[in-house]
Design a protein that fits this description.
The complex is a heterodimer of chains A (478) and B (313).
Chain A lengths: L5 H17 L4 H20 L3 H20 L3 H38 L17 H16 L9 H9 L1 H4 L7 H9 L6 H34 L6 H32 L17 H7 L2 H12 L8 H20 L3 H19 L19 H22 L3 H11 L13 H16 L16 H17 L13
Helix pairs in contact in A: 1-2, 2-6, 3-4, 3-5, 3-6, 4-5, 6-8, 9-10, 9-17, 9-18, 10-15, 10-16, 12-13, 13-14, 14-15, 15-16
Chain B lengths: L3 H24 L4 H4 L6 H10 L4 E6 L1 H4 L4 H8 L2 E4 L8 H8 L8 E5 L14 H10 L9 H7 L3 H7 L49 H16 L3 E4 L4 E2 H6 L1 H13 L12 E2 L13 H18 L7
Classes of the chains: A mainly alpha (478), B alpha/beta (313).
Chain lengths: 478, 313
């Protein structure tokens, strides 16, 4: 059940009405309803993997309790590692087994050994990387005595499976989400209206921006070699907007949906393409994953404490792991490596925390220096996205090779004017709203109601009229 | 602080106004731009099916049929009156068959040439073009749609309704001449063919959808009904651009196997119709003038020598 489907448009109001009216404000009933709805939502993808989700949930719930009740440190460690190994084991089998088997066979082939490894023909369970990381953060927090285990199985299951975040995040923390699940929720008019606006903007980003850009990006990436260098550049830029519209659009819909139920999820995007350096970009892109890696990998590895070499090593580790998290392909690892490389100068020169504020805060226009910094950062990001999007390393290098050809100076081919105009409008709206949680959070808030509603209707009509060819949400594959 | 009641009332009001906007859009007549589009060539093609005299050869398919065959040459070679019913693949093979069947007469040779996509997923049940066909072109046909066609196309309703408010829909100028209502000759062929565009803009990737055996059943059912009318049905393969072909070669083999396993009267084979890029016009299924000549001769030879259709003098 896609967020931008008719099915979801029927599912959401039904759950909303049952949640606020059918449960009479009883928190236990509300949580049971959320759990049942979430499992139904997941089963609509593939009911077979629902059992895997349930098992994963039970495993972390059970090991969490066992860790808390352990008589000694050794037992606690045992339950902790049991949970980690089984969680990562599932992820490894479903997501990475074929990659390792193939890579190992290829490596042996280079030294003359021919090995045929058994490969698995399995479908990747949707959302497995997300709910596995949910569970891992929970058991790590218990192991580190940051939180107490949740003893109510329903509440814990809602934390793992809450449908807005189940298949593509944000990756929540028990410390942030569980207390909200355990607390009585009151309907808040402003939150609900804000949630609806965020859903609307998320739909616009996905259906209009991402899906239109996808058509062009797919055309160029799927037929690299057929087009001019300039077309390849535009294809890469369009992919940058596609993935941003797609993933941040999904996150907006997730956050907005959760707010309708009185729950605040972690912010996942903060206008990343207005970043002035790569470090800032990573504070604004897929924030829930970046902070997850920071808290559960970077800091345990020593973080920034051990001097420059330690920081550089740890930075490369988290970016490589982050790349690998996205998928079992060398292209993702290269994407992670490139980002680590781009961030390196700011680590060496200790400038990675230079841009903690919002660009041109309080001003309408950025100055020349800010614009230059944003353009350079965006260009580096786009370059790295080529590896993320390409089917293989060879395809990525061929794509880059096409860019650096004489035809880079020719006019880009087959660009739809309407897509360009939509992008321009989108970037302007994002720029004007960059100091808020999402672009239209405050737009028109002081306008007369009729104008404000006209804006919302304009967005709805744009979604209907300019929607692109429907594409799967990119992050579902992770 | 406003309450839940106020929240629900405002949502109801917002959605109510939206529903009115959509309903009015739906009720407005087809826009000038829509009226000049190739979908509006259908009434003319309908009248061909009704009035063209026997002996006839009826060509059924999407734009691979309308934009890539020369009916005059077919007529000169086979001595049957050709009717090219092809318009657009996205109308869906199911609608094409359902709509053609009532017009079939005794003695007709019906040559069905589905685009390969028609056999995969729900493509054959139509998309936006089917929705526009039903609402703009043939409003009386609403009740003849199958449930799956409705399921496949209802999502286009808002876009269709909203398009009625778009100023661009009220301009008729512009656009490629081959995609207009008047691009078709008296047989139903697109006669405004242009030369190959380099590079060819569209190469289709691998067909990712699964094979849909329902479509074979529908084809079989169509064949039975055609035979019951005293006519015959032949399945042929579309001309397909070589790289697009290679990208989906496994799927194309699946189609051919399904045709043969189900004992259809099949002529030719897909490999023969793997056409080089320089013979294409603007998509992997649209041929340039030279491509049309070659393909037409290939089809004629197959109809005469493989299918051994009766050749009138």
């Amino acid at each position: 059940m896609l967020f931008n489907s008719i099915e979801f448009a029927l599912f959401l109001p039904l759950v909303f009405l049952l949640y606020w009216f059918g449960t009479k404000g009883n928190m236990k009933l509300q949580n049971i309803l959320l759990l049942v709805s979430s499992y139904f939502f997941y089963a609509c993808w593939d009911y077979r993997f629902l059992f895997l989700l349930m098992f994963s949930t039970f495993l972390d719930y059970f090991t969490g309790l066992k860790m808390a009740d352990a008589r000694n440190e050794a037992m606690k460690k045992f339950w902790f590692w049991l949970s980690v190994i089984i969680n990562l084991g599932f992820l490894g089998i479903f997501k990475y087994y074929n990659f390792f088997a193939q890579s190992f066979a290829d490596a042996l082939a280079t030294v003359g050994f021919k090995a045929d490894f058994w490969t698995l023909n399995v479908i990747l369970p949707v959302g497995i990387s997300f709910y596995t990381f949910h569970g891992l953060s929970y058991v790590i927090d218990i192991y580190k005595d940051r939180i107490k285990p949740e003893r109510n199985f329903i509440d814990y299951s809602v934390f793992v499976s809450f449908f807005p975040l189940l298949v593509a995040g944000p990756i929540e923390r028990a410390t942030h989400l569980l207390p909200q699940i355990q607390r009585k929720r009151e309907f808040n008019y402003n939150n609900a209206v804000d949630g609806l606006k965020q859903i609307l903007w998320g739909l616009f980003k996905k259906v209009v921006i991402a899906d239109n850009c996808a058509e062009y990006a797919n055309m160029v990436f799927n037929n690299s070699g057929e087009y001019s260098g300039s077309t390849h550049i535009v294809g890469a830029i369009f992919f940058a907007f596609q993935i941003y519209g797609d993933f941040s659009g999904y996150s907006d819909i997730a956050l907005g949906t959760a707010r309708l139920f009185g729950i605040d999820l972690l912010r996942n995007f903060a206008f990343p393409y207005f970043s002035r350096d790569i470090a800032e970009f990573w504070r604004r892109w897929h924030i829930s994953l970046s902070t997850w890696f920071r808290d559960y990998l970077y800091i345990p590895l020593g973080g920034s404490k051990g001097g420059n070499w330690m920081r550089i090593r740890n930075t490369f580790i988290i970016f490589l792991v982050s790349g690998f998290w996205h998928g079992a392909n060398w292209t993702f690892i290269m994407w992670g490596f490139l980002n680590a490389l781009f961030i390196l100068p700011s680590i060496v020169f200790k400038s990675n925390r230079n841009n903690l504020d919002i660009v041109a805060q309080g001003r309408t226009f950025a100055n020349f220096r800010e614009i230059t910094a944003m353009v350079i950062t965006f260009s580096l990001t786009v370059f790295a996205w080529i590896f993320f999007r390409a089917d293989s390393m060879t395809a990525a290098f061929e794509y880059i090779g096409q860019i650096f050809s004489p035809s880079v100076f020719s006019k880009p081919q087959n660009i739809k004017n309407s897509t360009v105009w939509l992008l321009v409008i989108f970037v302007i709206m994002e720029w004007l709203g960059r100091e808020e949680q999402y672009a239209i959070a405050k737009t028109g808030i002081k306008w007369p109601k009729i104008l404000r509603w006209a804006l919302y209707y304009a967005i709805v009509i744009a979604i209907f009229e300019f929607r692109g060819l429907s594409q799967q949400f990119i992050y579902f594959q992770f | 602080m406003p309450t839940m009641k106020s929240f629900l009332l405002k949502i109801a009001l917002f959605l109510g106004i939206l529903a009115v906007i959509l309903a009015v859009g739906l009720a407005l007549p087809a826009t000038p731009r829509a009226r000049t589009s190739l979908l509006f060539s259908m009434p003319k093609k309908d009248s061909l099916l009704r009035y063209v005299k026997s002996p006839r050869i009826v060509l059924v398919g999407g734009s691979n049929v309308s934009m890539s065959l020369d009916s005059q040459v077919i007529k000169d070679s086979i001595r049957r009156n050709p009717i090219n019913t092809g318009v657009h693949a996205a109308i869906g093979l199911v609608y094409m068959l359902d709509h053609t069947l009532p017009g079939i007469k005794k003695g007709d040779v019906v040559v069905v040439i589905p685009e390969y996509d028609q056999l995969f997923g729900d493509f054959a049940y139509g998309a936006n073009e089917l929705f526009r066909t039903v609402f703009d072109v043939r409003q009386t046909n609403l009740n003849t749609l199958r449930w799956k066609q409705i399921k496949n196309t209802y999502e286009f309703l808002p876009a269709y309704a909203v398009s009625k408010y778009m100023p661009s829909e009220y301009k008729t100028s512009g656009g490629d001449a081959v995609y207009l209502r008047d691009a078709f000759n008296s047989y139903g062929d697109c006669y405004k063919r242009l030369e190959n565009r380099e590079p060819n803009e569209l190469v289709f990737g691998h067909i990712d959808r699964p094979f849909n055996p329902e479509i074979i059943t529908i084809l079989k059912d169509f064949e039975t009904k055609v035979k019951a009318k005293g006519a015959s049905m032949i399945l042929a393969f579309p001309a397909f651009e070589q790289r697009s072909y290679d990208n989906s070669a496994d799927k194309i083999r699946e189609v051919e196997k399904a045709y043969r396993d189900n004992h259809f009267n099949v002529v030719g084979n897909p490999q023969k119709y793997r056409f080089p890029n320089e013979l294409m016009y603007d998509t992997p299924y649209h041929l340039s003038t030279k491509g049309v000549q070659i393909r037409t001769q290939m089809l004629i030879a197959e109809l005469l020598h493989e299918a051994k259709i009766q050749q009138y003098e």
